[in-house]
Amino acid sequence: MAERPYNNFTDELRTRLSIVDVVSRRVPLVRRGQNYWGCCPFHNEKTPSFSVSEEKGFYHCFGCGEHGDIISFTMKSENLEFRDAIRALADMAGIKMPDYKPKSAAQIAAEESYINITAHAAQMYQKKLYEPGGETALSYIRGRGFTDEMIKKYGIGYAPKNNLIANSFSNIKESALIATGLCRRGDYGMYDFFRHKLMFPIFNAHGAVVAFSGRSLDGSEPKYINTTDTEMFHKRQTIFGFNFARDAIHRNNRSIVVEGQIDAIQMQCNGFPETVAPLGTALTDDHIAILCKSNRNITFCFDGDNAGQKAASRAASIIMPFVRDTSDVRFAFVTGGKDPDEVLKTGGADAMHKIINTSIGLIDFLWQIANRKFVTSTPGGQSQAEKFLDKEVEKITDVKFRSAIKSDYDKRKFDEWRKWKKTKSVHVNIELPPVDDITKNTLIYIVNTYPEIIDGYGEFLATLNIDFDVPVPTMNLTRDSAERYIVSLKIQRYLQKLNIDKKEFTSRLLMGDTSVRDEINRIDTEIVRMTEKLERLINV
User: Fold this and answer.
1) Do 148 and 227 fall into the same domain?
2) d(C-alpha 272, C-alpha 255), whole Å
3) pTM
4) CA 164/CA 170 separation, integer angstroms
5) Domain's final residue, options 179, 201, 233
6) Closest CA relative to residue 329, chosen from 295, 302, 306
7) Which tens digits make up the pLDDT trace of 270-282?
8) Which residues constitute the domain of residue 127?
9) Strand 67-68's sheet: what is its strand order?
10) SS3 for 479-512, per residue?
11) What is the pLDDT of residues 101-131, one digit of tens each?
């Protein structure tokens, strides 16, 4: 990769680092409205007049007039020279500081040339979409529900099978075309990188076309190919649709992250304008840093299959260092082999709202991962799950918030994992319908006639809320029959509990919580087993 110019590096620092994070290391901040406020570190004051805007990346003191960004704040608050401030911020961001290399006039001119080439290429691709050779691409994108207005807004086009760009820009230096990623040099001259592809321009945050994503139209793999990294474009630091979603993220106080560009566009055009997507499946900490600079409330909406679950788990791990106690990070899953595009087609925005509104919070989601990944019914599994949770929680930089989450998990561990220490036997502990009079009288007779039975079934009998200290009805039951009666009743009550649990988990599955599938399967197996046991008992 080419060496990064020094002023490009400062832009990267501004992208990766939140000004709230930088300032809060020196100034206690409190959020009021869209901004954060504290007492100015540059003059003495008792009433906070120092405002910090995370969205704009600037601070401003209404008392003394000091104003600037992360670099000027670090220089002034730490009394550092420019390069030393850059070095301190680079350490904070965890990235290597480049050698100083200011942009030359030639380099600035080259970058402007690259932008002109990619912008012109996007226009050519869109024109080709509506020409005879583009019928397949146009038919496909219209079949995905795209209108001409959407195609125009997002600059969607078609790269033909011939070398459109190489031939059209023959008067441009080959090195310039190669630098844009649009062309490559082969044994027989220049050729187009994108051929017979449905083309999606990739815009930077300022709305300039810097790269492309091409979709296969003949079923070949990979389904999507992107421009390789260039001086203008770095896949790890580029979010598809962010230029369109930026204002909506601020307005709606959140961003929604989906897996692909078609999903992102359809979401933006159908009531979710705050939606974006990574380029490819690999979400990076750079993507998260960019999103968190706009808003720390993020809902990840992925497919409910194994790949989607893995992507969500990765997102949860990556975002941990960025969360604060004011963050609202959530996870939603689209089930049934569908994606957001299909949900919007079949159920409209209402169906998508239901999926988003039933999302699960970050802390609950990590708890689900721990219980799904490890066998928490055993001490060994609990230990592994505990290490997993500790590792993730340690990434949180806010000490008090980290402590609060640990306390929450400690309570969950005690309530849900330590039950095996509290009781030696599993018994029904759920509110079920009260027993009828015949059952009640039969149990009163059994308990008073065969008191030794209580030793084995006392805990179960206690859950039935029956007063056994009453006149005993007259009956004729042998001890064996009496014990079979209690066992059969216990199984019936247990089956009632299983069916209640299954109904609850099935409802959660229908609402998109795919993590309950294993539990539903376990319950079904248990229902079959207990039903067979009950039948054997009755037929004795």
Assistant:
1) yes
2) 9
3) 0.65
4) 10
5) 233
6) 295
7) 999 999 999 865 7
8) 105-233
9) 30-32, 35-38, 50-53, 58-61, 67-68
10) HHHHHHHHHHHHHHHHHHHHHHHHHHHHHHHHCC
11) 666 677 667 778 899 999 999 999 999 999 9
